[in-house]
Design brief:
Elements: E1 4-9, E2 12-18, H1 25-39, E3 47-52, H2 60-73, E4 77-83, H3 90-100, E5 104-107, H4 110-121
Parallel strand pairs: 2-3, 3-4, 4-5
Antiparallel strand pairs: 1-2
């Protein structure tokens, strides 16, 4: 299953990264490597990312791995919108966002997340 692909929203291009349903750190690492390879082919500070974490079981290893992926992409990502983050992982996600220095917001739906990303591209 392809976990990372671009979608067009009007005249905006958004990288959707679908980690939903991933159950192991190994599978998440493989998917993150694939997404990182896509991100790093783009110009700096240009990528809008929609990240779906629905059903991902959060623990220290997964948060660390996601932090490493964010760090690897920091020069390329303009903004990141996240859906499906469980309540108990919100604090850790905030720390990852602060570390990256790039905007990241949490949303209940893909539609809200996409609408926010589109506004971030105007900044």
């Amino acid at each position: 299953m392809e976990r990372a692909s671009y979608l067009e929203y009007g005249d905006k291009r958004i990288l959707q990264v679908d980690y939903s349903g991933i159950r192991t750190v190994d599978e998440l690492e493989e998917a993150a490597r694939s997404a990182t390879a896509l991100v790093q082919t783009e110009p700096p500070d240009s990528v809008l990312v929609l990240l779906d974490l629905t059903g991902v079981p959060f623990g220290l290893r997964i948060i660390r791995m996601l932090g490493e992926a964010v760090a690897a992409n920091v020069d390329f990502v303009k903004a990141r919108a996240v859906v499906g983050l469980p309540e108990d992982a919100v604090h850790a996600a905030g720390a990852v966002a602060e570390f990256s220095g790039r905007p990241m917001e949490l949303f209940d739906s893909r539609e809200e997340a996409i609408a926010w990303l589109v506004t971030r591209d105007a900044d």
